[in-house]
Prior knowledge:
The chain is of the alpha+beta class. Helix content is 20%, strand content 41%.
Amino acid sequence: MTPQEFFKNDIFAKNAGIILLEVRKGYSKAKLEIKAEHLNAGARTQGGAIFTLADLALAAAANSHGTLAFSLSPLYFLRASGPGDTLFAEARERYIGRSTGCYQVDITNQDGELIATFESSVFRKDQKVPFEVQE
């Protein structure tokens, strides 16, 4: 099973339209094309949609070492986005320990502008994930 196949089981992210583009050890990239269903009452991208994008990228990078990991941290919104934007989340590992890790997730738009950032620690369970990631 590939990471992309495994994370299709994240029904919430899948229903939101998030696509996992790349996964390698300690890194992942996902994208979301912003449509009407992603907007809040102010016609900007709803924070939950951005967080779901960041969370899936984090999950893919953190789980890339073969053990189940869960996030422990918040997201910081920096710039608005809206209809027609395509957002990308890139998760990069900054530290990996036996049962913890630290990741930086940056959310940018199609022009490379920083929309939000998410630095998260994760806790790794003693449970294997059913996929293997290449270096």
